[in-house]
Batch of 4 targets.
Target 1
Amino acid sequence: MKKNLIWILALILIIPFINADSTFFDNPDDFFIMEDFPSSGGSGSGGGGSGSARISECSQDSECPDGQYCLENKCHSVECLDDSSCNIEEGEVCWDYKCKKLFDIEILEFESPVKTGNFFNFKYFIKAVAEIKGDVEINFWIQKNNSIITSGKDTIYFESYEEKTKIKELFLPKNIASGTYEFNIEITYKTYTAQAHRTIWIDVDEEGIAKIYFVPPLSNLIMLGLIVLVIILLAIITIFYLKNLKNKTKKKSKRRK
């Protein structure tokens, strides 16, 4: 009797769930999406959500105080406004309101000897010392008394802080005479321009064979002259010292006799 009563009560409890609509899927092809909704911090129109707006100090230079410029929506102090505020002798220019040196360049060597009226090779080194990305135009020429004797051009793609060593050809005119010349290299990147130069000596013989030498800067020549002068003075002092020592030795020998 008790068992039958239990079964009847269980059936009464199950029947409402059997007749009720499904809470999830009546159709096996149905699906649902669970979505997180932001907790509301108060009532208001237009929906909401949590988050903070990015504060922008500026969108252009005119919105910053005097002596500052706008970069990435923030005002920064100006280091320079033009090249005159930078160390031009060291190759610095005013770039993005900061004094920067964009490139290092050095002429390494020349092919020598070479036959006049032919091309000769020279090697140079160039390094980007700033954040750049793009084509760099390189012009090179030999001149004498502001008159260009021969010239050439190169275009190289550079990434930031990249360095390259290049070998290029330059034509040596047949009628070139022996003498001192200036070898120049000019780098152009966007609005930036810088130059490097070396003084060279070209010695041409009767058969048209030219030898190319680097001429040291005047400061090096002065230093070399001072070194030679010191060596000469030391040699003179040494000679006088040895001569006096010899004379003293002779005098002592005579006294003993």
Target 2
Amino acid sequence: MSYRAVVITCSNRAAEDRSEDRAGPVLRQSLGELGLEVGQAVVVPQNPADLQRAIEAAIAEGARIVFTVGGASIAPGDVATAVTRDLIAHEIPGLMEEIRRRGATAEPRALLSRGVAGVITLPGSPPVLIVNAPGSRGGVRDTVAVVGSLLTYIIEQLDGAGHV
């Protein structure tokens, strides 16, 4: 795979250096092992404008795949799901359904994730896959287990492969 991916961690504590981002690096490493070109680590606070700017900047820099990490639980301050829903042209619900199902086998709280996956289409850029990964190391491993083998196929489909 020669696609560029960006991982954006959405966490007030990590953005303020009050805690270490432990899930983002796991996801970045896993994506690199899949053969993706992985951009620099990005950490933003739980602020809709900051997250939207980070997503749009990743796309402007050529990302075809954007993962957010954290910010998708039922906590009142979590913003990743709302920001993602505002940006996507259409949702891919099966991805998140399977990530939650897989996660719930080991951790029932995985079912509380509000994360979404979908396609962002911004003017002047090719379509981009975005996935809201859970903010735990186990959650990002589940995300890669579900989405990893599909990434090339998804981008090829977004680029029109297999359509006449």
Target 3
Amino acid sequence: MANKKPKLAVFKMSSCDGCQLSLLDAEDELLDVLGGVELAYFPEASSRMQKGPYDIGLVEGSITTPRNVEEIRQIRKECKILITIGACATAGGIQALRNWKDTKEFTKIVYASPEYISTLDRSMPVSAFVHVDFELRGCPINKYQLIEVLNAFLNSRKPNVPSYSVCIDCKLKGNICVMTAHGIPCLGPVTHTGCNALCPSYNRGCFGCYGPMDSVNTSSLAKQFKAMGCSKFDVMIAFRSFNAYAEAFRKESEANEK
């Protein structure tokens, strides 16, 4: 029993499945990880589903319905280590845009029988309801960062996931800054690394897919956007996308709402 492999479980809340697919897309790296764990529960990849408890649980998706609340609380009880993956699980996701509106009005417009729809007023990150041991950001996540996080927890060490901004990636790649050279609004200075500066590499501004970096100064960037000709509405929209309800982005968007 001493050599028994740790049990890994992968769960889905309200999401598009993109982050789970990133795990499956890891291919050779995933095989190495699976060599050290027992894949006990992963409906996206296998019909074999073992009951808990589990050593590590990965959760994709936001908490959007009363059922999600019940499920995540039960999952927390069954997992020794709980890791949230992706913008939905860590910041409420793109669906958190509804948090500034009346959800009941939406259901009346969209559904013929809205009385059958059971949903929360807001889309929230998993951490709003249970303790989370580690949050891995991204929309979708970086598969290599995920492998590193799994490897770290399997070996009882701290994950080595960089926390600097996308701007550092641009410098490392030799990209010309799209803001200074082309006047394109870019969230790179306040966005957590993970995408390898994908959009700036193609002369497009960063959309903030990996959420706010640590110790971020969004107000300074918002001021720069306005100096470039952006309206307050433009600034608000810039901060309301995949990670709209991440605290730093949420506060900056609200500061420019009126």
Target 4
Amino acid sequence: MKLTKTISMIVAMLLITSFAAFAGDEKQENKKAMPVELKSQTICPVMGGKIDSTVYTDIQGQRVYHCCPMCSDKLKKDPDTYFKKAAVEGVLFENIQTTCPVSGEKLEDKSVYTDFEGRRITFCCEKCVGAFNEDPAKFLSKLETSTEKMEGHEMKMGQEGQDH
């Protein structure tokens, strides 16, 4: 009889512990699943200071504003770190894409997009979103190439307008 009571108590304790652990896991899953509310960038992702709208880096289809020119090199050395940090904080950088990274087609509108690790990537169609999701690194590098071309053009135009 004592043995039956002891076994019953052990089973009851295991069940209670299991339910408590399961409930804790469910709460953790709900926390992770809750979407982060996106907001425009107001803080430099590198130094944490207030952004200066005249100081920015165009990288991977995004315009990232900085507090000072020195932050650009740090962002370029390790963009994934800063993009992932922004994603966790719900920061949405300004998208400057002009072409779909998958098809190369010019973007007529920016209604088809996905948010990927702190970047909003726009596409010409839903089919391209699927292709991007299969190999994001491949298409992020294509964005990098198109951004560099655009950045070089902007720098040249900016230099022409300056008095030296």
